[in-house]
Amino acid sequence: MIEIKSKREIELMREAGKILSEMHNRLGEKIAPGISTKELDELAEGIMRKLGGFPSMKGLYDFPGACCVSVNSVVIHGIPNRHTILKDGDIVSIDTCTSYHGYNADATRTWAVGEISEDAKRVIRVCQQSFFEGLKQAIPGNHLNDMTSAIGNYIEAQGCGILRDYCGHGIGSEIHGDPEIPNYDMHRKGPKLCAGMTLAVEPMITLGSPVCHTADNGWDVIPDDGSLSCHYENTILITDGEPEILTMPGEDKSLLINIK
Question: 3-class SS at 228?
């Protein structure tokens, strides 16, 4: 069942989104060659707590960190650790949730580490832009597939692969709720979008094959061909008009695109 949020619930999620947005922007300033993914995880948790949020991903499904920190060909669910040290030319995705008085916001940013290749820039741009292509369809009266097909059609037109076994989701007092939100054409309408719905929309793409496997650690999701990958996510609110990005109340410093 898809929840329609009350004004109070929306305000709490809006505050969670502000905290998460500020955390990502502050963390982005710390991303540089020489830092470990575990250090980034610890910094992110500290910033969230300092801003009044709670790292609600920590311990979820026994995940060992406050953030998924995924480098280069790891698309999602990267476990933060001391031995993965960022180097010049890497790209790193930080995926995490913040809870504020029991209500969650979920967002992912992919950052460049120093100077990155044109391929790395392309996979980030395509992933980011695909989210905004979907956002154009996130209006009341449209159906879920209007949004998911817009995301998928854009990604496929750019020649990138779409993960099909992982998807976005409804969000609120629970991190993962209805509906499931894939990043491709479902070939069915899906539920109608209504004001008050809050959705975590998260394209996950590769430069090559979308066929992936899970690493021996039970978490890291990696393309079989080892291609560069990207993940971008925001929590959005369906309103009576244009959608509101709850996790982007101001600037998103990770963007490599101009929002139109």
Answer: coil
